[in-house]
Amino acid sequence: METALPIELTPEFASVADGLRRLGTTRAEWVAVVRSTNDSRESQTEILSWKEKLRAAGITLEGDELERLLLTYAVQESLPLVASLPVHGQVKILMQKEMQAYTKPGSGSQLLSGTNAFVTACKIATLRRFASGPLDWVISGIPRSWIPRIPLHEIPQALLYIAKQFRGLKPAFYIHVAPAPRNRSLVIPKEVRKAYYRMARSLELQPQMKGILCASWFHDPVMLRETPHLASLNEPYLEHGGRILTTLGAAPPDSGFLQYNPERRKLYETGQLKPRITLAMWPREAAIGWAARHPELEN
Description:
Helix content is 44%, strand content 12%. It has helices at residues 11-22, 27-36, 45-56, 65-82, 89-102, 116-125, 155-166, 189-204, 221-226, 235-238, 262-269, 284-292; strands spanning 129-131, 135-140, 172-177, 211-216, 243-250, 276-283. Helix 2 (27-36) crosses helix 4 and helix 4 packs parallel to helix 6. It starts with 10 loop residues before the first helix and ends in a 7-residue tail after the last helix.
């Protein structure tokens, strides 16, 4: 039996909700599919199936009406929990703002199933991903499968750092670039520092976390020279007690370094530019200590 309070739906959503009910699905199932959506396309199979059945039943789906309806019900369950999350206050505000935007038809980017934007929205809507400004984080760690990807001669030193300085493989805050439009402020150093500050303050509230980490092409020293406008992304690891630890192999062409830059694409296609996924780590104590020294980033 469905016990959650009813949601007053917009006309765009109401017809989709009626169609889903006629398919024999329940609100609990709608929320469950959002909770189970992850980076694999297989996790979204049910949503894609519902979409096909709704269209076959004559319901017009011109955009992301179905996805936003599902997100609306997930957000209804999650929003009351945001206030008690062990995260910095500004993270709570950003989470609430992001989640509320999902419930508005035609708002912002399309959140279509099968896209990264929809997966990100599902994770935020179900409190699995956290907004910190131009950067987000998830609770994760270093998979053991990464260890064989480290250059052989660097493995002993890397493992020693992970064990002694980071104090383990997991759990940790794993960084992702935020979705649009929040990612636009990646080129504003103060906004990037504020994002790191909010993460570090959130670490204080979660004593089990080892620290902050990221594996990306923008931590590759070669790419740092190519993208100086992203230098602030590397400050914690180069200047504030973290470390650019090791490489994990070639960066795939769809990882973002080719976007909006035809010259870089040309260099890549001719073999003159070979970005590497590079692991950067910021131990808990170093991050918290840095945040304590920068109270100006609080507001």
